[in-house]
Amino acid sequence: MTEDSECIAFEGNGSIASPLLASPILSARPGNLISCDDGLYASNGGTWTPQDFGAIGNGVADDAPAMQAALNAALDAGGGTVYVPAGIYQLATLPLRIYRRTRLTLSPGATMRRGSGGTMLLNGDASQYFPGYSGHGDIVIEGGVWDARGTQFTAAAMCMSIGHAENVLIRDLAIKDVSGYHGIEINSTRHAVIRNVRGLGYYDPGGRDFSEFIQPDLAKGSAYFGGFGPYDDTPVTDLLVEGCVTGPSATPGTTAWPRGMGSHSASPGKPHRDIRIRDCEFQGCSQFAIGGYTWESLVISGVQIRDCGGGIRLRTLDSSTASHRTPAGGSEPTITGSQPLAGVVISDVTMTGGGTYGAAVELVGEDTGYVQDVTIGHVSARNVGQQALRAEFVEDYTVAEVIAHSTGATAISTLGTRRGKIVDCHVNSSAGAGITVDSRSTPAAPATDVAVVGCSVTGAAANGVHLWDGSSLLVDACELYGITGYGVQVSTNTDRIMVRDTRTRTTSSTPINFTSTVTNATRRGNSSDAPGAITTATAANTTAETVLASLLIPAGDALPGTGYRFVVHGQASTTGTPTLTVRVRLGGLGGAVVAAFTAITTASGITNRGWAVNGSLHAVAPGASGTWVGSAQLLHRLAGATGQTLQEVTDGAITRDSTVDQALVVTGQWSVASASNTGQANAASLNRV
């Protein structure tokens, strides 16, 4: 029977007459009878109200004993419903204890109001002993408002605390102004659903700036779960949190919750598993909206975060906390490091504002315990104080379609990650770099295998994409512009790196830069790759050495062993028999000589005779004092109708700074100045090999 139930009158012949609306649906009559308008009474032996046992609901009298009597009646009957009509129920005798197969329903307008310290609602007795998930379960708690009055009762206490249970549903209610501990503690419980619950207001009695409104926890000890034992390290398994909200209550002296949902204790080998958090909203948390500690097989989706210190943080066991490396009761064995956690999906998340405490999405493992098998997608972070995404010691992961707009640090930042992809992400206005892959001093250094593909970065205050150390890295098809620093910076012993098909513009430093310790590097098809600008010109009526063709090698383009193939085609005309000297230089007209050909004595009065220079140039050791070697051939028909070939090669290495633009030029110099003595380049090409 519910508020919408109807009394039905039966005719003498057994037929059913028209329904009669019940008003009131429940009455405080002896025997728990339901009163109908026609004066009939229907027995409802499976439902009790606190009024059956003397509750008043006026907010003054202590209604806790009557409320407990109704809960006990459900226990004695092997289960049933406790229905609480509208009213304010002062609870001065706590905790209330709810038992197995009980449904506690508060009608709209019903408020449970704290009248003393301690947990408000607990599923069992202090003397019980139900290991694992064998305690009081099959419980439904729904409706109404639970007012913990944290500013009046300031000692840290729970509102609802559930332990060693199976099959628990908490829904469609509000919890206000809890002091110190948690709104809902789900401890050592399997198959729990928390749906459409609002956590409004929190009071910190001191030293509790990390409390979570909803906390999944394990039965590690009385300091972790004070209701009852045993303390057998039973974790939470199969938890769904859906449509929940945390934020301020507007009660003077209270704040929003420090954390919307999370855990902060652990034991080795006891992760919380199979957790789903979806379609929730978190406002004003001073720390993380969701702080998942030792959670695995986790799905978070459709979460909105506004003005919180951080967004979503997941962490493997923290090896720096000795108690977390030790099982319940301080028993053996104590582990020495962290432990891996596998299976994380985070999607459709927005975070706006805040971010001074942590990233919008943050995954933290250790070298002894990686976060594994991770998918992150459709994340939007705007005006956050730190990163949009921070990943430490994460492996086998995909990050896709993260939009980071105005971040106070590097937008997408990784440390020690391996075997991953960062795909189709966009960064606009970062106070740090755009995207970083940092493998320094981590197990990922010799085998990183991370690709940054199809990403765009604009307005970064540091490098667009920065790769430190690591091996087998790829930057592919990215758009990088408006960068203070390098477009792509690769440094610190990075090995087997490829940068390809990436466009850069408006960078304050070299568009793509590899430091001298980078090895086995490949770059191709990038907008800043050689060749840069190519120009051709004419030398006429002068005896000065003149540039006929200029082929630009951009700053930072050369890697150790990088080779360049160049070809210049031209023609010459003369009067008389002057000589023409052709040279190849690196560094412009005054640059180092790569090849200086013997002067050619031309035939008399030739017209538009062809010549060509082709050659190769290699960077031996790029850098500010970079060394190069090269060679070239000069093919010509200037001395006669039959073609001739001249060949030249550098003697030893030449020195030119590869960190700045270098023009590879072909020059011509006439022995006699005449308007008829003209030499010109018609076409030129430079290929990076």
Could you describe the 3D structure shown?
- Helix content is 2%, strand content 52%.
- The protein is an all-beta fold.
- The chain has three domains: 1-45, no CATH class; 54-326 and 337-457, Pectate Lyase C-like; 534-688.
- Strands 46, 48, 52, 53, 54, 55 and 57 form a seven-stranded antiparallel beta sheet that branches. Strands 16-18-21-24-22-19 form a six-stranded parallel β-barrel.
- Structural domain tally: 3
CA-atom Rg in angstroms: 38 Å
Note the overall shape.
rod-shaped
CATH-derived topology of the largest domain: Pectate Lyase C-like
Q: What is the class of the largest domain in the CATH system?
A: Mainly Beta
Residue ranges: pLDDT <50 for 5 or more in a row?
A: 1-44
Based on DSSP secondary structure assignment, what is the total number of beta strands?
57
CATH evolutionary superfamily of the largest domain: Single-stranded right-handed beta-helix, Pectin lyase-like
Largest sheet: 7 strands, antiparallel
Helix and strand composition category: mainly beta
- What percentage of the residues does DSSP assign to strands (E)? over 45%
- Number of discrete helical segments: 1
> Can you name the CATH architecture of the largest domain?
3 Solenoid
Which percent bin holds the helix content? under 10%
Mean pLDDT: 92
Query: Span from first to last CA?
Result: 82 Å
What is the topological layout?
Blueprint: E1 6-10, E2 16-21, E3 33-35, E4 41-43, E5 47-48, E6 58-62, H1 64-76, E7 80-84, E8 87-91, E9 96-97, E10 102-106, E11 110-114, E12 121-122, E13 139-142, E14 145-147, E15 160-179, E16 184-203, E17 212-217, E18 237-242, E19 245-247, E20 259-262, E21 272-278, E22 281-283, E23 288-293, E24 295-308, E25 310-315, E26 341-354, E27 361-364, E28 371-384, E29 389-392, E30 394-407, E31 412-415, E32 418-423, E33 426-430, E34 435-438, E35 450-453, E36 456-460, E37 465-468, E38 471-476, E39 479-483, E40 488-491, E41 495-500, E42 503-507, E43 512-514, E44 519-524, E45 534-536, E46 538-540, E47 546-553, E48 563-573, E49 579-586, E50 592-596, E51 600-601, E52 609-621, E53 627-636, E54 644-649, E55 654-655, E56 662-670, E57 678-688
Parallel strand pairs: 5-7, 6-8, 7-10, 8-11, 9-12, 10-13, 11-14, 12-15, 13-15, 14-15, 15-16, 16-17, 16-18, 16-19, 17-20, 18-21, 19-22, 20-23, 21-24, 22-24, 23-25, 24-26, 25-27, 26-28, 27-29, 28-30, 29-31, 30-32, 30-33, 31-34, 32-35, 33-36, 34-37, 35-38, 36-39, 37-40, 38-41, 39-42, 40-43, 41-44
Antiparallel strand pairs: 1-2, 3-4, 45-47, 46-57, 47-56, 48-52, 48-57, 49-50, 49-51, 49-56, 52-53, 53-54, 53-55
